[in-house]
Amino acid sequence: LMNHYSVNNYNNPTPKGFDYQDQLVDPYTYVYNTAVFSTNGQAPYYYKDAYQTDIIHAKTRAALKRIQDQDDPFFLWIAPMAPHGEFIIGEGGQITTRPAVPAARHAHLFKDVKIPRKPNFNPDKQSKTASYWKHLEKLNSTLIEDFDEAYRNRLRALQAVDEIVGSVFEELAKSGELENTYVFYSADNGYHLGQHRAYPGKTTNLEEDINVPFIVRGPGVSKGQVSDLVSSHHDLASTFIALAGGDKHVPSWVDGGVIPLTKELTRHPKPISKESFAVEFWGFSIMPEGYSD
């Protein structure tokens, strides 16, 4: 939603639809130890030598305290960049990349953890997969160790995200709003690391790329319930609005159905589709000669 805002166009246009917004701006969005934010379309503020997820953590606590001083219901969206890989844009636009960077306090964790060695991880044979993957060479031990370390760094970087989650519940409990609030935990994409011999990435229709966490806590949501229903992020807006009792405000052209999180939502007139769901990737197109985009 906020992609491509930068230190040059942070207020052009100012994001609409929020009472308060505090967003990362390029070219620092994917830099872990220099966090740069624009607040309500104001000039970017630089937090030099500060771990980005920790700044988001502090802003989350402040936002929850500010919101809870009001009587109205609220919607708060928290979007840490971690455990995304780091992109550093240098002179001439040259981009340097590296795996996720953990906070110093978490850098020692998970030393013996490896990518789960499921049957599709660097298999000896690629017979049961799409033709594209069949031609990939088997990964050597050096690459596998590099991928394992990238996996460990993703887990390490997620520890600071876990601390944010803990603070959300702590602040809601302190204010007495925990049992009256829906909390959603998800991600915008998955990530493959060595499955089907593939190099790290997220832009395929592999299970590892399209199956993301989706955890919900709130009134009427059964504790410990696990569902195998297929939904997508297109369904989130409709679900949020249904939980808030705002269906009458939703135009008929809005995509997505309502995920049956509660007994009431199982009877909703606009349920999620049981026939199809969307898998999309934002990228660059290469048009054949004679065509244009």
Automatic annotation (TrEMBL):
InterPro entries the UniProt entry points to: Alkaline_phosphatase_core_sf, Sulfatase_N
SUPFAM superfamilies per record: Alkaline phosphatase-like
Pfam families: Sulfatase
Single GO MF descriptor: glycosaminoglycan binding
Stretches assigned to the Sulfatase N-terminal domain: 8-245
Recorded family membership: Belongs to the sulfatase family.
Entry protein name: Sulfatase N-terminal domain-containing protein
Organism of this sequence: Rhizopus stolonifer
High-level lineage: Eukaryota, Fungi, Fungi incertae sedis, Mucoromycota, Mucoromycotina
